[in-house]
Amino acid sequence: MKKQWLWTPAVLIAVAAISYGLFIILQPPLLPQGFLYGNGHVEGTEVGISAEVSGRVLESQLVEGRPVATGELLLRLDDADLQTRLAQGQAEQSAIQNQVASLEVQLRTWRHHLRTADSDLKRHRELKRSGTIPTQRLDQVKNAFEEAQGQVQVLENQYQQTKNRLEVARRQLELVQLQLNKTRIHAPLAGTVLVKAVEVGELAVPGKVVAVLVDLSRLEMKVYIPERDIGKVKLGAPARVRVDAFPQRYFDARVAKIDQRAQFTPRDIHMPEERVRMVFGITLAVANKEGYLKPGMPADAWLKVQDDLPWPDQLVVPR
User: Fold this and answer.
1) What's the pTM value of the predicted model, to 2 decimals?
2) Which domains does the chain have, with CATH numbers?
3) Element (DSSP H or E) covering residue 223
4) How many whole angstroms from its chain centre is CA 212?
5) Tens of pLDDT along 255-271?
6) Which of 138, 159, 223, 310 has the fewest CB atoms within 10 Å, counting from its CB?
């Protein structure tokens, strides 16, 4: 019993020593001097695409996760009604153009008659002064002049009104053509289809989002740095980002924005004790040319705040 009593404390001390040693060995190393750590989520600028005209979806090239180029056709809507309106508008425009052409011919003719009548009137007035012609003849010439003058005024008014109608018809035709063009929905930017919100056969209506694109080559990540360290961070400072999906790979990043006002650490930060501290938000622009990173991925980030330091071979999450 005496030996057992002596061995028990020794065993407990040995177990405690081994446990402490394992704790020290397994504990991650401290973050090297000249580096700052933050965590957050990868974010991307999402662009919602909506229909501008109503129409049933006849064709769709939307596939979630598929990259698209700027201007690439995404959806084609039913344009039968607009095609009918376009044909009607073209026929109306053609008819009005014919009216304008006819009025131009009539105007040229009556303007010629007016010039002739004006010359005849001047000549017959001279003849009347010399007593060569009677008053009745002068009145006839004067009536012809006034008739030509009145006809020219009527035709000029009709011509102007018809030209105005032609302009209205052209504008209406342009509007129909514009609406017709909008039945083809194209990608406004090069990106990746994040959300497909409409299927072939469904009705697309103005204002309803039919797809969401995101530019995966230009992603961002928001991290929060303690107030005491914010003076070390400069715009353009290099950074590296790592996500759980690619634990052996680091993605290059740089400091793109530094918030001008401090705040309490947001609740989505991993360590609760950090949430009561005043921090500054730092936005990192993350390079993602190969498209491995996706919006929403949780990520760790390390900022290098001393330019002369090399990057460590292994970056660790600090204690």
Assistant:
1) 0.65
2) 32-45+214-304 (2.40.30.170), 49-78+183-210 (2.40.50.100), 80-181 (1.20.58)
3) strand 209-226
4) 11
5) 999 998 888 766 555 55
6) 310
